[in-house]
Specification:
Blueprint: E1 11-12, E2 18-20, H1 25-44, H2 56-63, H3 78-94, H4 98-114, H5 123-128, H6 137-140, H7 142-160, H8 164-179, H9 196-207, H10 210-222, H11 229-236, H12 272-289, H13 292-308, H14 340-356, H15 360-376, E3 392-393, H16 395-401, H17 421-430, E4 437-439, E5 443-446, E6 452-458, E7 461-469, E8 476-483, E9 487-494, E10 502-506, E11 509-510, E12 514-516, E13 519-526, E14 530-536, E15 540-543, E16 555-560, E17 563-568, H18 569-572, E18 579-581, E19 588-592, E20 599-609, E21 627-636, E22 648-649, E23 652-654
Parallel strand pairs: 5-9, 18-23
Antiparallel strand pairs: 1-4, 2-6, 3-22, 4-5, 6-7, 7-8, 8-14, 9-13, 10-11, 10-14, 12-13, 15-16, 16-17, 16-23, 17-21, 17-22, 18-20, 19-20, 20-21
């Protein structure tokens, strides 16, 4: 492929240069390090009593010839272990942990022994289906698993300098490059589940080998072209599926985002996780190859997803069938899917958009997903997880009362047979520091207000930024600027969509900053000890949906700062659908130190239907039931379902 100049983009600060130290996020960072990652290692080794077994570690031991047995789990089981190793790499990058590193090194040794002589690595096809490699790309996730192992190899190498896993994935990627491509004799196909695309770009950035970028570019551009590879492949199997049923004679190529070439696509469609992983790979390839047409498609797909198909919590994928998008403005709250992995993929894509186009709208979405669905996907104990993230839940329906709600759980689960979400949460939170800032030659962009310390090079000058943040409970943020020498550069601070106004002071004096794409840009001569303070107004906001969102007509949701709020049965009693919030009701907030480890709650005088006056008739021609006053208490959405089983609702009728 012809080489083209890359597009200019800002750089991510290495994890070794960012230290998170924040009153809100310290809890989650420590939880991931001391509870989540150790717990998930036990789960991957099938040592958590009462949890669904994983088989992931044992599969590698069997493939390596260290144990005897049968393959266990889903065809993509390898990816759970790969994501755990990636999270481990991020933890080691931020703080040495010899014991954790030794565990990971031992596992990497096993992985290396399981690799074939030609570089191939996949326990399902090694143990259960030898000789059938690359025969069912639509269903069997081979390249998806490869992508996650590549990401793990890159992360572990950057953290430790150890090349063993990196060399394993380089050999695997080289073998994949021999198998796939446009050249005669190569397989001109792509995986049913995107992931390899973004992973190959990471490998290119780490090794400098353009073969990996070219291969990623091939996978991106082959998808959806005619003749359609997935259709041809399935026809060659007489429409037989890995999943135990025979496909109809028509393949739903849109589910795989393979219905059109990617640069022609206009709507977020199909399986939500696959879509955002694909979008992340598209952004990377566009940036590295200078493909402005491909980036235009990225913008178009991003806008459709976030402006017409995203929940207020940053969840995406409204349909349980296929874990997929449905159509514009179709955002049901109770049958929603909104897989945790999908919101994590949304964060990945947002970060990549920010690097190419520093605009607050991307960081606003990143923040929305992070503070609501991603954090809400894990319990406060770090050992229970949501796969599905509803905006309305009733245990009577979820627990078998209505099979249409069977995918929705009113409490978080210990583990899953399909356990993609828990290690995905772990790897994102373990790498949290890499999402706070980006930098170019003369500007540092502060995208998230999370306390800690960061070191960045600007025009040959080393600058240390010390951030203090009271988010998400207060809008006060303070930066101390420590350049190694007096220098001129820019600091760009995001003005969040949830803040109607913001004041900025520099060294205690009001500063009138210019605004560019939602960032207040401060350009001046900086010297050691300079301080910048931001006061971000943080009112309680009544949020409303576009009129075409049927599920939210006549309803409101509350948001304060980055946090979306919800009603929970524990505070408001059962039958939450009977509650309403009068338009004129005053909304007040307070810090509830004794609730859920200390959260800000919102209170209002609401109304409840007087169901006790109705009687026993199912329907009645008499007057509608009256209402009685009831105080309402709203908690942050991320904190729901930490006090046992009960109803929950984000959107409430506005009376």
């Amino acid at each position: 492929m012809a080489e083209a100049a890359s597009m200019e983009r800002s750089r991510i600060l290495p994890l070794t240069k960012v230290n998170v130290n924040d009153p809100f996020w310290n809890y989650y960072c420590n939880l991931v390090r001391h509870t989540v990652v150790p717990y998930q290692w036990e789960a991957l080794n099938d040592r958590v009593e009462g949890a669904e077994p994983s088989g992931a570690v044992r599969n590698f031991k069997i493939a390596a010839g260290l144990e005897q047995g049968e393959f266990y789990g889903f065809v993509f089981q390898d990816s759970d272990l790969a994501k755990w190793l990636e999270a481990t790499g991020y933890l080691l990058a931020t703080s040495p942990d010899p014991e954790l590193e030794a565990v990971a090194d031992e596992m990497i040794d096993i992985i290396a022994r399981a690799q074939h002589a030609n570089g191939y690595l996949n326990t399902y096809f090694t143990i259960k289906k030898p000789g059938e490699q690359w025969t069912n790309l639509m269903d069997c996730h081979e390249l998806y698993c490869a992508g996650h192992m590549i990401e793990a190899g890159v992360a572990y190498y950057k953290a430790t300098g150890k090349r063993k896993l990196l060399d394993v994935v380089i050999r695997f990627a080289d073998y994949i490059n021999e198998v796939f491509g446009n050249e005669p004799g190569k397989l001109q196909g792509y995986d049913g589940h995107q992931e390899i695309e973004l992973a190959l770009v990471k490998l290119y950035e780490t090794t400098g080998s353009r073969n990996y970028l070219n291969l990623s570019q091939f996978f991106i551009h082959a998808r959806g072209t005619e003749p359609n590879f997935l259709v041809q492949e399935t026809q060659s199997r007489n429409y037989e599926s890995h999943w135990g049923f025979v496909h109809p004679k028509k393949i739903d190529t849109a589910y795989f985002q393979a219905h059109q070439p990617v640069r022609e696509q206009e709507h977020a469609i199909g399986h939500a996780v696959r879509f955002v992983y694909m979008l992340s790979g598209m952004i990377d390839v566009a940036a590295e190859t200078g493909d402005t047409g491909l980036f235009a498609a990225c913008r178009r797909l991003w806008d459709n997803m976030t402006e017409r198909q995203m929940y207020i919590t940053g969840g995406i994928g409204s349909m349980a069938h296929g874990e997929a998008f449905s159509f514009d403005y179709d955002l049901p709250n109770d049958t929603v899917y909104a897989e945790t992995c999908a919101s994590i993929g949304l964060v990945f894509a947002a970060q990549r958009m920010l690097r190419l186009e520093p605009h607050a709208k991307y960081a606003d979405v990143l923040e929305r997903a992070l503070y609501n669905t991603v954090v809400g996907g894990m319990a406060r104990d770090g050992k229970h997880f949501f796969y599905v993230n509803p905006l309305e839940a009733d245990p009577k329906a979820c627990n078998g009362g209505n099979k249409n709600y069977g995918h929705v759980k009113p409490v978080r689960q210990e583990w899953f047979g399909c356990a993609c979400c828990p290690p995905n949460v772990a790897r994102l939170l373990a790498s949290l520091g890499s999402y706070l800032y980006t930098a170019d030659n003369d500007t540092v962009y502060a995208h998230l207000y999370i306390g800690g310390e960061a070191e960045v090079e600007l025009g040959g000058t080393t600058v240390v930024l010390k951030q203090q943040s009271e988010l998400p409970w207060s809008g006060y943020v303070r930066f101390e600027v420590q350049p190694e020498q007096t220098a001129v550069f820019k600091l760009a601070f995001r003005l969040p969509v949830w803040s109607p106004s913001a004041s900025i002071t520099v060294n205690g004096q009001t500063y009138k900053a210019g605004t560019v794409n939602g960032y207040a840009v401060l350009e001046r001569t900086w010297q050691a000890g300079d301080t910048v303070e931001l006061a971000l107004e943080m009112p309680v906001m009544r949020m409303h949906s576009h009129p075409l969102v049927r599920s939210n007509a006549g309803k409101t949701a509350l948001q304060r700062g980055p946090l979306v709020y919800c009603l929970e049965q524990a505070d408001n009693g059962e039958h939450l659908h009977e509650l309403s919030l009068p338009k004129e009701a005053e909304l007040s907030w307070r810090k509830a130190e004794d609730l859920l480890d200390g959260v800000v709650v919102i209170e209002a005088e609401g109304e409840r239907l007087k169901a006790e006056d109705w009687g026993t008739a199912l329907y009645s021609a008499s007057a509608a039931p009256g209402t009685r006053l009831q105080p309402l208490l709203f908690i942050p959405y991320f904190a729901w379902a930490n006090r046992g089983e009960g109803e929950m609702a984000v959107w409430v009728r506005e009376s």
